Amino acid sequence: MIDIQISSSPLNISACIEKVSSPESGGIDVFIGKIRNVTADKKVLRLEYEAYESMALKEMHKIADEALRKWPVENIVIHHRTGVLQIGEAAVVIAVAAPHRDAAFEACRFAIDTLKETVPIWKKEIFEDGEVWVAAHP
Amino acid sequence: MKITLLAFGIVKDIFGNRKIEIELPEQSTTADLKVLLDSQYPALQQLAVYRIAVNDEYSSEDVIIKEGDEVAIIPPVSGG
User: Fold this and answer.
1) Domain that holds residue B58
2) Sign of torsion, CA A111 A116 A117 A118?
3) Residue B56 contacts A where some CB pair is shorter than 8 Å
């Protein structure tokens, strides 16, 4: 089972875990990406996320498909938030359920690493004295 | 032909809009579009990289853009 969502409202972490749970799954690995209060010694006030939604959903689906192909994984949920996020809020939740833990850990790691490389979502960090689109410049 | 470009992230700031229209010769490829954009918007060359998506898919340089295609300019992504 694959469940992919992009949402402007807060992510429900326990609902993600519920969704991947199944009698066949002996292990569930969950990655939660959260908003950190500091970047390169600068205080972050908040983050703003923007997605090219139709394409981002497609790319997230490709990641889930590939995870299911590469590892013996039962279920995978990838939910990403957009809009204005405050410190401590969850920006992304990935939950992976598999019969055994190795596959769950590896597929989850693969999913977040690949998401950060391929999915067209952008974040802007807002500081006290300005704002920066993350990773835009070398 | 007229092509509408969707802009995201920093490219939206560079274009000053989330959508712009440009005039592109027939049979232009995404590589041709990049050359045109780099000259019209030199700030794009300061980016770490940018890619072009056609109809929701990352495109290779030799893809020919057709009228009605959804073309998006994708600056370095930073989700997660």
Assistant:
1) 2-17+29-74
2) positive
3) yes
pLDDT in tens, A56-72: 999 999 999 999 999 99
**8 Å CB contact between B28 and B66:** no
**CB-CB under 8 Å, B9 with A55:** no
Q: Is A138–B48 a contact, with Cβ atoms under 8 angstroms apart?
A: yes
Cβ-defined contact of A116 to B46 (cutoff 8 Å): no
ipTM of the complex: 0.95
Residue B22 lies in a domain: no
**CATH code for position B49:** 3.10.20.30
Would you list which residues of chain A are within 8 Å, Cβ to Cβ, of chain B? 33, 49-52, 54-56, 58, 80, 91-92, 112, 115-124, 133-138
Q: Do B77 and A116 touch (CB under 8 A)?
A: yes
Pick the CATH number of A2-133 from 3.40.50.300, 2.40.30.170, 3.90.1170.40, 3.40.20.10: 3.90.1170.40
The verdict on pTM exceeding 0.80 is: yes
Using CA atoms, how far residue B3 sits from A29, A33, A55, A67, B60, in Å, is: 44, 37, 18, 36, 18
Tokens of B60: 């290779």
